């Protein structure tokens, strides 16, 4: 699952709808509280008490909804930032973790980053294998030249063998630095 504008708009619409429903419910409750206060004989000129209750209630609703959605959408990024620093430190086997409480879009993002980390780890392993093959084969060719035991045909054969090994190792998916990714 990927981020998309449609899904993000739907999330924002849900936030707005939840806010409106909370405000409507609170307004109804304030009206009932006002009626109860009048029935109890409390009459304040200009309904100052009711206005204070309404403003305080709206402030609590706005704070509560903001706190909830801020923690749900932005909270996980501090944890992800810490994990990314660990991965950048060379621990390429580590993966980002999502929690059930994290937003579905954030979990989707984490899944895609983990796929990218899998590819990166495989690339690093391939690079290490390539380095080991090059190092051992080149040292063997240099040693045979230094000892004066190799003739030109033997050196050419060793170089062809090395070239074949390199080609076989690089047949897998490689970085395509000169191409743009396909558009969705």
Characterise this structure.
The chain is mainly α and 184 residues long. It has two domains: 69 residues; 66 residues. Helix content is 74%, strand content 0%. The protein contains five helices and no strands. Helix 1 packs antiparallel against helix 2. It is rod-shaped, with a radius of gyration of 32 Å.
What is the CA-atom radius of gyration, in angstroms?
32 Å
Secondary-structure-derived class? mainly alpha
Head-to-tail CA distance between termini:
13 Å
Count of DSSP strands? 0
How many structural domains does the protein architecture include? 2
Put simply, the count of helices is 5
Average residue pLDDT: 76
Outline type:
rod-shaped
Pattern of helices and strands: HHHHH
Helix fraction bin: over 70%
Low-pLDDT runs = none
Strands, helices and their partners?
Layout: H1 5-39, H2 48-73, H3 75-88, H4 104-146, H5 152-169
Helix pairs in contact: 1-2, 4-5
Which labels suit this protein?
2 domains; mainly alpha; 184 residues
Give a brief description:
This protein has 184 residues and is mostly helical. It has helices spanning 5-39, 48-73, 75-88, 104-146, 152-169. It folds into two domains: 5-73; 104-169.
């Amino acid at each position: 699952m990927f981020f998309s504008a449609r899904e993000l708009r739907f999330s924002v619409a849900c936030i707005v709808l939840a806010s409106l429903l909370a405000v409507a419910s609170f307004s109804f409750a304030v009206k009932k509280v006002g009626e109860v206060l009048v029935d109890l004989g409390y009459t304040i000129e200009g309904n100052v008490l009711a206005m204070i209750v309404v403003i305080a209630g709206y402030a609590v609703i706005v704070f509560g909804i903001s706190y909830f959605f801020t923690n749900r959408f932005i909270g996980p990024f501090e944890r992800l930032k810490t994990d990314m620093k660990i991965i950048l430190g060379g621990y390429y086997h580590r993966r980002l973790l999502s929690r059930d409480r994290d937003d579905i879009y954030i979990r989707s993002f984490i899944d895609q980053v983990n796929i990218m980390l899998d590819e990166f780890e495989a690339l690093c392993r391939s690079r290490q294998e390539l380095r080991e093959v090059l190092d051992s084969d080149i040292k063997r060719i240099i040693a045979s030249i230094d000892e004066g035991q190799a003739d030109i045909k033997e050196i050419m054969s060793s170089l062809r063998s090395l070239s074949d090994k390199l080609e076989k190792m690089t047949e897998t998916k490689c970085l395509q630095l000169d191409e743009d990714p396909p558009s969705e």
